[in-house]
Write a sequence for this structure.
């Protein structure tokens, strides 16, 4: 029997699905957040940054991984850089173009609504990473540098030499450690992760 994975993508026009969902979700009051314990499985860039952000918001977070250290997630392989539609180079980039290139780059197999949301928030992801201390490459004047990557017609890739994934991972773990957030990382083999 072939099962289908229900991604629970909200209804509505493509560009508004996740924004509408977010706008209509019930909020949890700041005082109630510490009563909720959230388990995050995976400490790569997806799980690690989600855990850091939820911890910063005040939730009690437990983040699990199966590597000896949470910083050994496969995201460390993402060496080329991270894309965002900031259009710093004024070469015609936009959220839609980033969405389109990402769908095409994924051989049209990605979930469109999720990719649109990724393109939409790509700019603030870079801002968040900078705030976490990720040492992105910069121009001589101090502005963040960009390069063209993966066959794109525009320069939208933010990078940290050839170690972007590693630096992004370090950034999100640093963010949790530096603020003593109520986030704990445990190996699923019950060996405590060394950096925590
Ligand atoms: C060689 C390579 C180069 C890439 N280059 C780029 C690039 O330049 N730019 C870019 O944007 N993207 C790049 N990518 C894609 C990018 O690296 C991935 O899309 C992204 O890192 C995925 O992050 P993730 O957090 O979802 O997964 P991962 O980093 O793989 O994290 C998954 C986590 O889940 C945990 N886990 C899994 N199963 C369990 C379990 N049962 N119990 C507990 N924990 C579990 C693992 O321990 C791990 O911590 C590249 C990918 C590869 C392979």
């Amino acid at each position: 029997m072939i099962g289908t994975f229900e991604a629970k993508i909200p209804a509505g026009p493509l560009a508004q699905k996740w924004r509408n969902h977010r706008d209509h979700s019930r909020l949890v009051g700041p005082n109630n957040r510490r009563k909720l314990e959230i388990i995050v499985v995976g400490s790569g860039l997806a799980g690690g940054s989600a855990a850091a952000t939820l911890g910063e918001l005040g939730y009690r977070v437990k983040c699990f991984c199966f590597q000896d250290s949470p910083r050994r997630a496969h995201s460390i392989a993402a060496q080329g850089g991270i894309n965002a539609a900031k259009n710093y180079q004024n070469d015609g980039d936009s959220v839609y173009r980033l969405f389109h290139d990402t769908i095409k780059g994924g051989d049209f197999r990605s979930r469109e609504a999720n990719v649109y949301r990724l393109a939409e928030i790509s700019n603030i992801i870079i801002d968040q990473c900078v705030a976490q201390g990720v040492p992105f490459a910069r121009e001589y004047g101090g502005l963040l540098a960009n390069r063209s990557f993966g066959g794109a017609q525009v320069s939208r890739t933010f990078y940290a030499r050839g170690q972007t994934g590693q630096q992004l991972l370090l950034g999100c773990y640093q963010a949790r450690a530096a603020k003593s957030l109520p986030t704990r990382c445990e190996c699923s083999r019950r060996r405590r992760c060394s950096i925590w």
Summary: Residues 41-47, 64-67, 73-75, 77-82, 165, 188 surround flavin-adenine dinucleotide (CB under 6 Å). The chain has a mean pLDDT of 88. The chain is about 35% helix and 10% strand. Residues 164-178 form the longest helix (15 residues).
